[in-house]
Amino acid sequence: MGLLRIMPPPKFQLLAVLAFAVAVLFIENQIQKLEESREKLERTIARHEVREVEQRQAHDLVRETPAPDDLDELVIIYNRVPKTASTSFTNIAYDLCSRNHFHVLHINTTKNNPVMSLQDQVRFVRNVTSWTEMKPGFYHGHVAYLDFSKFGVRAKPIYINVVRDPIERLVSYYYFLRFGDDYRPGLRRRKQGDKKTFDECVTSGGSDCAPEKLWLQIPFFCGHYSECWNVGSRWALEQAKLNLVNEYLLVGVTEELEDFIMMLEAALPRFFRGAADLYRTGKKSHLRKTSEKKPPTKESISKLQQSAIWKMENEFYEFALEQFQFVRAHAVREKDGELYVLTQNFFYEKIYPKVN
């Protein structure tokens, strides 16, 4: 009976339980805040340590005789596919080279042959890797992909490229051969004088508009293997895909060239600082346009799309487009109709051993 008399009433028991629960919640909240503060402090310390390391490295570079900067050793190869807006893009590199202090070199092959002889491959690799006076360098030309690792070099160049819808590319090339463009309007082209339209060529079964003429972007990415140039080769298609994802830093599409340029500027400002603004406002960026080009009819397009060659070239184009859009989605954001490059979104933390 005595024990029962000293027990608090149920009302006070409930209040005590509630007070205890509130105290537990308050303590858990304080612990969470302390954990967040600890993480924030760790990030601040990590950033401070990285800055100290960078400052020491900068001090050492000033104090000692440095080796050449890696950025000053960079070489970019743009093995440009014909009629993919390659001249428009290359003109930007020519406009920027003096300002950004790099060299631009055109790879001019005899008769525009995209395949080099074995001895020329060796010469080219040796030139690109050892020609110190031309570094940093931007090489461009209508040449097939060349695997530098086959030649035992330690530093491989950075490959970039642009692809285009295969039928649109073929139509542009067809009229280019007959009417030229506004880049060099006085130059006489190989098919000048031939007034036959692309549709008339398709209807009559002409060779210049045959499905075999679509086979170009795949071999350019496939490279210097004989199978690459066997029209309709499934092996060549798969090799081209592998090279695109494994050997190229970035492959853009003609239809979204401005986004390609913007991403290159963000990734390689040593070369492309100011490129996006120059593309939007410069006089040369849209300079080269094929003259007298007439869009093909649906019937002509449908006839080409029935071929196995178009299906393979289009599969490669769609593959390249999907990869480009994937990279872009993780590199830029759109706001109010404008694209913005993302800032650095990673940092280092928990760096050990601690720097004194």
From TrEMBL:
Its main location: Golgi. It comes from the Eukaryota. The keyword Transmembrane applies. Gene3D superfamilies: P-loop containing nucleotide triphosphate hydrolases. The keyword Magnesium does not apply. It is found in: Golgi apparatus membrane. GO terms for cellular component: Golgi membrane. One of its GO terms (molecular function) is heparan sulfate 2-sulfotransferase activity. It holds the Pfam family Sulfotransfer_2. It is a single-pass type II membrane protein. Residues 24-58 form a coiled coil. Keywords: Coiled coil, Disulfide bond, Glycoprotein, Golgi apparatus, Membrane, Signal-anchor, Transferase, Transmembrane, Transmembrane helix. InterPro entries: Heparan_SO4_2-O-STrfase, P-loop_NTPase, Sulfotransferase. Belongs to the sulfotransferase 3 family. This is Heparan sulfate 2-O-sulfotransferase 1. The gene is hs2st1b.
